[in-house]
Here is the input.
Amino acid sequence: MKRIPWLPNRIWRRRLWRYGLLVIGLAFVAWVVHLDGVVREKFEGRRWAVPAHVYARPLELYVGLRLEPKRLLEELKTLGYRRRALAQQPGTYQYKAGVFTIVSRPFQFWDTKQASLRFRLAIRKGKVSTLQQAAARVDLPLLRLEPVMVGSIYPSHHEDRIPVKITDVSSYLVSALVAIEDHDFFVHHGVVLRGLVRAFFANMRAGKAVQGGSTLTQQLVKNFYLSSERTLRRKLVELVMALLLEIHYDKEEILEAYINEIYLGQQGPRAIHGFGLASQFYFGRPLRELEMPQLAMLVGMIKGPSFFNPRRHPERATERRDLTLREMAAQGFIGEQEYQLAQQAPLGVTKTPLNQGSGHGAFLDLVHRQLRRDYLDEDLRSEGLQVFTTLDLGVQEAAERAVESVLKRLDSSQDEGSGQLQAAVMVTNVGDGEVLAVVGGRDTTYAGFNRALDAQRQVGSLIKPAVFLTALAQPDRYTLATLIDDGPLTWKSAGAPDWSPQNYDEKFHGQVALYRVLAQSYNVATARLGLELGLESVLETLGKLGIERHLKPYASTLLGAVTLTPLEVTRMYHTLASGGFRFPLRTVRAVLTEDGIPLKRYGLELQQRFQPEPVYLLNTALQRVVSQGTGRGLVAMIPAALNIAGKTGTTNDYRDSWFAGFTGNRLAVVWLGRDDNQPVGLTGASGALRVWGDMMRRLPLVPLKLVQPSQVVSVAIDMKSGLKAGAGCQSVIELPFIKGSAPIQVAPCVAGKKPSWFKRIFGR
Amino acid sequence: MNAHRYLHLVLALLALLLTACPVDRYTVRPQTSMSDKQVVQALADAAGQEKQAGRFDNAAGLYERALRIEPGNAVLWTELADLRYDQEQFRQVLALAAKSNTLAGDKQALKIRNWRLMGDARKELGEDQAAKVAYERAKALENIETRRWF
Here is the structure.
């Protein structure tokens, strides 16, 4: 047989075509199968890294609670509650002359789920006087308002969101989306050819890709799966994936993903994704409470969240909203009258995004650090954990305002570097060690150096209570009446220069009773007392008080030549405020999963570090610091009847100004100084104490009533001799003593008694 | 007769006027609202029920809420100590009972309960000597109490 030369060629060519097409077809199928895998894998799993959401403490309402109407109004405003003539919807309230009717929102607390409740609350003379269910008029024992969300711990790509379920979404939101973004959403299969063709020609004319012609499904694919590049290849991928998505999932699922995925704004590095978060971000309340025009505004923003930003460009946002409304009316989703009304509605956005990323930065910083001990950072940023904290917004607000106003006044007294004065504040609840507020610097919106946690500063006289507590724990040697020598002192130790402490007034005061040494903060007498006690035992006391870092056993430590952070000082004074019990300072009460299942509770814990008697004696002496000593400036700001206990601290050349003090319910530590450690010309009393007082006078306070231990007795003492007083003595003071330690020896001033020097020296 | 009819009319009008008055029922109503003592009691009762049901974490949370309202209530600290005993957190029992003691004032019965709790916790911790001391303190207080009765 003769070979026809062209035949094999033709057959080969045909075969080549056939096989070629087959290969291409197979490759296409493989590609589609691959895309199908991608589509399904990401859609079925955890769709987003959901940030941990952090809540402030809930406001607990009960009869007898000290609460001003103003404070409750503020709380309601922060929660985004709206005032109505008749409150009926969750998230609304009525208010008239001290009487509130509030419809609370349902909320999943860490322990129970609280349903929405319409209740009536009356405030009389600064106290809650009535708390009842509004309709049934049944008394309520107590009630928690849902807590304010104060921040998120979001992933490194900075996407923040609050996912919502499609079943919880208003039908207006869906119709607005369909009206403005995708008319045929409920009928198409992911792609609309007409739109594609239109977009194609528009792009041809422009010579580049300008128009999307995308359905909601395509938009979702673009945002959820793909990068933002605009190429033909990517467009093809998008089309195939959109079709695949529609094959596997129903419209509701796709819509839900879209509603949670879409980008709707920016705050610094934080990207606002999804309508759930956007609702909180722009309107300060949950999505289900938004009204139709507000939903239309959000939907309108999809086209360009920064161009249509309602805070920056309200006129653009309004115009765009109205267009959305017009489309909704044109397509019959809303009636003509509804449309007219909606068009007239104000935008209603809040002035600033409430409580997000501002103000509480310093507190959240502490929360984050405490959580990192128990959770992986990655989990915090992606698992949607709900973190319930101890932050008290009222206290935080008071602290910030006090810092702001007092520092402004102090600025004028600064010789140079006005505005350089910095501050840190920590406030805790005395009863249980919960941290209520943290101020990390003067500019509370700036999330920078957190001075409350990280500024290591000399503490000066703030350390002295440790010396006195060490002494008072030895009642056979020391009492509050023991006379201490405040005469010149030089301390010699091998290998170190001689140390001669001075008093602030540069005078010596002779024999001074121990309680007065503390009240007047005399350095020389304190140093002498500390050296008598031994450095090691004072350091041991400091450790028991909660100072965990190793302090060098130098004599100057006795007068506070050591650096501590405000947080450490707070720990130390909290142990005193709680009567010798050490409470780990807590910022987190509980952590829940995204679905509200409790993961971990951080309960109250304590350890007894000191016997109650010496702590009681010391605390009465700290009360005298405020009533008679270096802290007496407080009386101008806060009623003396609160019996506040506290201590001022000033360091060399007036570089640091401290005040630590407590009432019956609150402990606060304030530090003022400069970051470059230059002098600020302030004593503890002229600086930090004023911030402390200014803050506390804004808060409901409980007087400090120290419970006298049964082993303590009160004895009248002659101030001059430190001996037992009686009729005839001029200056008498009542002091507490641990039983058996009070002076038996009668003072010379007692009528009919002649001073017996022999007895005075040996008689006790 | 006429006067009688007028009187009826006046009374009827008066009654109508009274019922039509926009009286705020809250001001008329006797004050039945709870005091904060009762609130603390309500929380403590709820905590007791949670504890009975074995939901210790919830119970602890309720006691803590009560303590936030009334931190000086010695009984609450003892109740919490009791709960921690059931949770076998014996070191916490010691601290909580000691805290209660510092607030108990002249509540001798409560102090006795605290010392016994501390004794029990010490025993669980294997600190028999300290347990003995605690029981002795309880005993001593009991003796004072008995003497007081006679």
In short: The two ends of chain A are 140 Å apart (CA to CA). Chain A has five domains: 1-45, 57-148, 153-344, 402-696, 712-762. Chain A touches chain B through 40 residues (CB under 8 Å). The CA atoms of residues 555 and 744 of chain A lie 34 Å apart.
